[in-house]
Amino acid sequence: MKFIVTGGAGFIGNNIVRQLLKQNHTPIVIDNLYRGKIESISSLDVEFHKVDIQDFDQLRNILKNSEGIFHEAALTDVQESFTKQQEYNDVNVKGTENIFKIAKEFDLKVVYASSSSVYGNPKKIPITENSERNPINPYGKTKLDDEFLAEKYSKDNVSIIGLRYFNVYGEGQTGSYAGVITKFLNRLKEKKSPIIFGTGTQIRDFIFVEDVALANIVAMQSNIKNGFFNIGTGITTSIQQLAKIMIEISGLKLEPQYEKALNGDVQSSQADMSLTESILKWKYSMELKNGLAKFFI
Ligand SMILES: NC(=O)c1ccc[n+]([C@@H]2O[C@H](COP(=O)([O-])OP(=O)(O)OC[C@H]3O[C@@H](n4cnc5c(N)ncnc54)[C@H](O)[C@@H]3O)[C@@H](O)[C@H]2O)c1
Fold first, then answer.
1. Which of 83, 158, 226, 286 is least buried, going by the fewest C-beta atoms within 10 A?
2. For residue 72, how far is its CA from the centre of ligand 1 (angstroms)?
3. pLDDT at 177
4. What is the per-residue pLDDT for 178?
5. How far is the CA of 74 from the centre of ligand 1 (A)?
6. Which residue's CA is minimally distant from atom 34 of ligand 1?
7. Which pLDDT band, with edges at 50, 70 and 90, does 297 fall under?
8. How many CB atoms lie under 10 A from the CB of residue 263?
9. Tens of pLDDT along 259-277?
């Protein structure tokens, strides 16, 4: 089938494109290359449009001939979002509304990237989908505004599924989005100690990018029309543990360094996966150690 992938030159979008090709679908990529890399698509046999999702008319022209939309394009840097709030709002919220509007006009299903950042600092873990949404940074706030829009358009009979990704890792991550694994990896490649911000007791639910790509396709093909679903593993790893595992894989004799905690960094994040597993019928398949070993050089 002919599917649009916005942000298809970026980390997760590009993995969706590759999975779609493997499954003999026809992906059409939209990306303004703000962060995405042209090389990630020029090597593939796909139609590419260098278009900004804020450009409604161009977007409409491309989307109208498709059979569904995977919407991944966004500004994704939590720290940058504090200083560029207007820009984050324009791209992440207004851009997303453009997608929903066009989907409504042409009756297209949308599967889009929400984020665990909508939960902020949860009162309780693991986090279920009906937990309070209380983002603690402007980036997370844009993702929550997208969810309000998704709810509004869903009431209008548009089929929209929001996938709340937890911490995604894998080959090709730009390092902009809470990319702690990429940052550790880059330090280790230079034979330097990974830097931990804060105490390192922060816990995360790391999910492999290929699993995320497959979750998107499962959601697109399922009979479920609407809703938000956690996309994680349900398993937690502390940042200290992560540093230890990565140092071990590298074979280097190093200890992590510690620096001041980052602004807007959540303390604990762990997905409750029951709803996704029972309703969407998707579960992760890659264990963290194996996933890391796959792209660790
Ligand atoms: N990586 C994670 O851990 C994670 C976690 C939760 C949610 N998400 C969400 O998943 C999606 C994909 O994230 P990613 O990690 O692949 O980030 P990324 O930065 O690698 O990819 C985003 C892509 O969108 C493109 N883009 C940005 N602004 C655009 C615009 N105005 N018009 C067209 N294209 C534009 C960029 O060039 C880039 O290729 C985002 O919506 C992000 O918020 C990511």
1. 83
2. 5
3. 52
4. 45
5. 4
6. 31
7. low
8. 11
9. 999 877 788 999 999 999 9
Sorting pLDDT into bands at 50, 70 and 90, what band is 295? confident
Pocket test for ligand 1, best of 11, 40, 80 (most atoms within 8 A of CB): 11
> Which domains occur in the chain, in start order?
2-166+207-232+271-284 (3.40.50.720)
CB 47 within 8 A of CB 29: yes
* pTM over the 0.90 mark: yes
Which element (helix H / strand E) includes 96? Answer: helix 95-106
Name the pairing type of β-strands 203-204 and 237-238: antiparallel
CA 95 to ligand 1: nearest atom: 31
Query: Which positions are annotated as active-site residues?
Result: 139
At 48-73, the pLDDT tens digits run: 999 999 999 999 999 999 999 999 99
Q: What is the pLDDT of residues 134-190, one digit of tens each?
A: 999 999 999 999 999 999 999 999 999 999 999 999 988 865 554 789 889 989 999
Ligand 1 atom with the shortest distance to the CA of 169: 3
Higher pLDDT: 216 or 265? It is 216
The closest residue, in CA terms, to atom 3 on ligand 1 is 168
Would you say the CB of residue 11 lies under 6 angstroms from ligand 1? yes
